[in-house]
């Protein structure tokens, strides 16, 4: 037997790693040489053994490649820190190791309860790259749900999986046929699925499944490591930020403590609003504006414009409601309050952002401001009592010891020989509670003293004596300003000017009657003087004297029967007459105003005609009736 026809040639083929087809060469040569059948059988057996040895060597070589690949993968993954880099490296390595067309990975979404496409390698379909799989749907959903590897050589025809239109559409658009999916496990939990797929039919061997499972195990650990590293970095960043916050807070607390000590010292030493404003701006920087309850400036440090009135009211209301300073644009507002009473506001334009401790400084300054304002009010109220007692004596006892009255006035800076007007404020400004009454009196005292005048409470009313000659203007100013303070319409009657104790007392009586007349005329919530009431003003003296016989005779002769009829029967003839004249003699409008039927008005006016005579509507009689009704209305409140 020649060398070429012996089994030795198979060893040579194995030594040079020949292809499987080359192992048929010795048999072909032996048959051509005419070797006997027993020798051919021996060569066939040698070929089979040689091919088995070759297959074993091939599997070992491939295993070495796989192990080397896994080692390289572990080494590569260990050097990666960014999660996205880790995921891309895992998928790329899986595609290369298994030699597939596509590799991809899905991760589980615990919040939504499904799994979603996270990264792909070799994919060309955007639809496929956006897939989300419900647990149990498709091959991937089944792997994610069960934690078991699944493989299919033809996905579209495999009935083991729950097919959905969305998944099948994405797989079809990508052109995938054979798919292998293995779970990414961390302990007993499945965090995702790693896939290898071909665009043509391909059976995946057990060795390939094991290889992808091993790669998935490395991948799961690498993913967890990357996550832990990211969480550690995030925690370190948060710790660094917290440390910076603590340092900033510590600095803020030190500033707040210094500001507190400084402002406390201001209160003890009797400092003013300017000192408080300077202390705040020294600590926080910027500019500060202090305003009273009416929006008037108390102090200003730095360049800051006074805010719009509506913006100021809204911001102060918000600060009072929240019990904190509030921000509106570049400005910070802190309400200055004492209990439920609004005393004013601090408006700060800081140089930079305010932290919580800085806000506390502004709020503490508002508290100190409230203390200073209350102290000022206490001093003013003490002075106001002295000034009020002087005004009360001027009104009630002007003839008693005139020299003493002049002396007391000079000590308070009041010149009784200068013209003054007297303003009487109605009961509508004074609520039932004592605190509200005191608040109105306190306001009036401050209002009068700042203008060089006096204020006092007398007979349930508040009286102001103000320098000047415009009684009507003073009454309107008092009504307007006090209405803002009380939040309700205020009526003010005035008279004057007058000089000297005796004239001032008489002028007060006229102002008081003017206030009564305004109520009788339905002019509540307004301010006016005696001179501005026309003929009513000329008659106020008579109305103020209930014993005046001429007025009494006139009323009795003109409307007396109607008044007596109402008093006896409890009817409303007087009110009907007032409404009738008030609407220009229109029966329909008078009925509408009285909320009765027109026939009722007609019947009442017929009764008036029976009482006053048929000619009561003639022009000259009608004028007398209207004048008598007006005098009657003025006279009743006066009594």
Automatic annotation (TrEMBL):
InterPro entries: CdaR-like_regulators, CdaR_GGDEF, GAF, GAF-like_dom_sf, PucR_C-HTH_dom, PucR_C-HTH_sf. Gene3D superfamilies: 3.30.450.40, PucR C-terminal helix-turn-helix domain. It comes from the Bacteria. Residues 82-233 form the GAF domain. Pfam families: GAF, GGDEF_2, HTH_30. Belongs to the CdaR family. This is Transcriptional regulator, CdaR family. It comes from Micromonospora mirobrigensis.
């Amino acid at each position: 037997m020649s060398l070429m026809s012996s089994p030795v040639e198979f060893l040579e083929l194995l030594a040079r790693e020949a292809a499987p087809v080359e192992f048929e060469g010795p048999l072909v040569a032996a048959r051509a040489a005419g070797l006997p059948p027993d020798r051919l059988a021996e060569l066939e057996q040698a070929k089979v053994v040689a091919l088995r040895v070759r297959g074993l060597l091939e599997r070992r070589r491939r295993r070495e490649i796989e192990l080397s690949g896994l080692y390289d993968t572990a080494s590569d993954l260990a050097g990666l820190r960014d999660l996205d880099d880790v995921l891309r490296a895992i998928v790329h390595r899986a595609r290369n190791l298994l030699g597939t067309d596509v590799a991809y990975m899905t991760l589980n979404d615990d919040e939504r309860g499904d799994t979603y496409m996270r990264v792909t390698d070799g994919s060309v379909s955007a639809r496929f790259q956006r897939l989300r799989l419900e647990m149990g749907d498709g091959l991937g959903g089944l792997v994610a749900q069960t934690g078991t590897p699944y493989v299919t050589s033809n996905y579209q025809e495999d009935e083991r999986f729950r097919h959905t239109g969305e998944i099948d559409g994405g797989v079809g658009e990508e052109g995938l046929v054979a798919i292998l999916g293995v779970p990414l496990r961390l302990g007993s939990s499945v965090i995702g699925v790693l896939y290898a797929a071909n665009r043509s039919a391909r059976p995946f061997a057990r060795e390939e499944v094991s290889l992808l499972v091993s790669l998935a195990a490395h991948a799961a650990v690498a993913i967890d490591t990357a996550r832990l590293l990211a969480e550690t970095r995030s925690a370190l960043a948060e710790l660094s930020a917290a440390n910076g916050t603590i340092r900033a807070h510590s600095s803020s607390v030190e500033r707040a403590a210094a500001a507190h000590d400084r402002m406390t010292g201001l209160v003890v030493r009797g400092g003013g609003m300017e000192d408080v404003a300077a202390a705040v701006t020294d600590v926080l920087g910027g500019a500060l504006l202090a305003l009273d309850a009416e929006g008037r400036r108390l102090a200003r440090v730095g360049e800051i414009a006074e805010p719009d009135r509506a913006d100021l009211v809204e911001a102060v209301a918000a600060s009072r409601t929240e019990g904190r300073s509030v921000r509106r644009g570049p400005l910070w507002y802190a309400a200055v309050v004492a209990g439920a009473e609004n005393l004013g506001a601090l408006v700060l334009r800081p140089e930079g952002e305010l932290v919580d401790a800085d806000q506390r400084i502004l709020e503490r300054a508002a508290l100190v401001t409230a203390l200073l304002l209350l102290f000022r009010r206490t001093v003013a109220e003490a002075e106001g009592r002295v000034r009020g007692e002087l005004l009360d004596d001027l009104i009630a006892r002007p003839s008693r010891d005139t020299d003493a009255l002049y002396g007391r006035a000079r000590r308070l800076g009041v010149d009784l020989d200068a013209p003054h007007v007297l303003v009487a404020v109605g009961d509508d400004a004074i609520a039932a509670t004592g605190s509200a009454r005191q608040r109105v009196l306190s306001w009036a005292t401050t209002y009068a003293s700042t203008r060089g005048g006096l204020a006092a409470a007398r007979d349930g009313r508040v009286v102001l004596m103000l320098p000047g000659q415009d009684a009507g203007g003073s009454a309107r100013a008092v009504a307007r300003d006090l209405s803002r303070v009380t939040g309700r319409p205020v009526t003010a009657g005035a008279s004057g000017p007058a000089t000297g104790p005796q004239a001032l007392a008489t002028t007060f009586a006229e102002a008081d009657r003017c206030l009564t007349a305004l109520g009788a005329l339905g002019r509540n919530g307004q301010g006016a003087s005696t001179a501005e009431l026309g003929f009513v003003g000329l008659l106020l003296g008579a109305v103020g004297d209930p014993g005046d016989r001429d007025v009494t005779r006139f009323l009795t002769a003109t409307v007396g029967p109607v008044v007596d009829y109402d008093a006896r029967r409890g009817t409303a003839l007087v009110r009907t007459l007032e409404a009738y004249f008030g609407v220009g003699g229109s029966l329909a409008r008078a009925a509408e105003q009285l909320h009765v039927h027109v026939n009722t008005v007609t019947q009442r006016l017929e009764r008036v005609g029976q009482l006053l005579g048929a000619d009561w509507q003639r022009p000259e009689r009608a004028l007398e009736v209207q004048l008598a009704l007006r005098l009657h209305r003025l006279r009743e409140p006066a009594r």
